[in-house]
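Escalation from tier 1.

The customer reports that the assembly of two entities below gives different structure tokens on two consecutive runs. Tier 1 could not reproduce it. I'm attaching the input and our single run for tier 2 to review.
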Amino acid sequence: MARILQLDTAVAELVDDGDTVALEGFTHLIPVAAGHEIIRQRTRNLTLVRMTPDVIYDQLIGAGCADKLVFSWGGNPGVGSLHRFRDAVQHSWPVPLEIEEHSHAGMANRYVAGASGLPFAVLRGYAGTDLPNHTDTISTVRCPFTGEELAAVAALNPDVGIVHAQRADRAGNVQLWGITGVQKETVLASARSLVTVEEVVDELPEQPGAVVLPTWAVTAVAEVPGGAHPSYAQGYYERDNGYYQDWDAIGRDRERFREWLDTEIHGAGRSAR
Amino acid sequence: MSSPRSDSATGGEFTSDEMMTVAAARSLRDEAVCFVGIGLPSTAANLARRTHAPGLVLIYESGTLGAEPERLPLSIGDGVLAETADSVVGVPEIFNYWLQPGRVDVGFLGGAQVDRYGNINTTVIGEDYHDPKVRLPGAGGAPEIATSCGEVLIVMRHNPKAFVSAVDFVTSVGYGRDGRAREQLGLPGKGPVRVITDLGVLEPDLATGELVLSRVAPEVEVEQVRAATGWPLRTADEVGTQEPPTERELTVLRELKATLGNGESS
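Tier 1 run:
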């Protein structure tokens, strides 16, 4: 059964130095507040996993929380590059960042394998690309029935999977809808999971097309209204596009980034919700 | 966002980026199923849907099937896509059930570099993967879009840094390093059938896989395109000139762009 915890307690209990942590969200429902709490607790040596590392991963990397990134597309959507990520890869600032990169199809299938309790997944992928030369979690497998050679990718089983959802009930059952990305797979593939939610309600209302994660499949739930900002939570708030645009200038400059870290993350009055 | 050469290239009536977007839209036939990326491809696909191709089916990799956004989405996972889609599915499903088996007719790709054989690089600039000159965003959905879609349209602004003889890294395969990869790998899709730029259109020579100039944009000279290309660009036997955008295409395109608001790039 999921425990309902404060965000700071949940992150302190679930995320340790050196863990492999996936904070997932495909543009929608990105667990930004949980990422900020990881930075605030000065967690180190994480292997961060995400299909689409964006601004929150730029912040985690710039803050020195990670020494490895597993991903398939890293950018500031609609704006441009992630400058903290680039600085880490190109100049090892603030610490060197090892990378392990895939395609979206490969990453999605790695989560599916992890959620399914399988060691690897099969797909038609990576044909003709240079990615397998640099990524040792991409290989090939021969179909035992037809003899066809197919791409194989190693399962992903993070120590901690973190996602954001619209609602949970008091028993810790989680409900999310709209674009749900790989959130379900992330929770099911991970040894421990944290779901931040917009609100905890007495009873989950009917919601067509919603994904429900039963309480016994989730480790902890934390109520964090606005916890996906600057991304959006369908039915609650819109994406804050200005934040993404403003991040470009902050992320470009080490000094401005440090100031941002000091005031927005470590500053007084910014303690965990 | 317009490229600086637009005025000289077009006399100021429309920009070279508008020509490029319109050319991309015209490449989409009605009722085709189209895998759309954000930016110019999304603009072009939504322009096509509002002009000659009302039955065009848009799939965004965030999991939205048959999205019919009334404004341009700002990101691949914009709420307007989920709200207007026939169905919203998870990301594993979009790649495994919808893209992989060949249900998508057309995929749009772009990148930092494209080479003479239509291979695309969105990974690193520089020869050493571990010590890149520029770290790019990475593959995203592109490697499997490049191989599984019925055909691929590449849309990129034309300059010698982007149009290189051989890409530093093959993120998404066109015709391979030697122009022959598609048959060797037994890839289901045709690969890049057209590269649409702000200067014109390149198409592959099917015998060699090499991209050849087939059309130039209005008021653009062949020599201009050669100068912007990082390999000795061959030309088709007859190089045509693109039809300028019609008034209707321009009106609809500008209305669409206006829905983006706050200076977001296309």
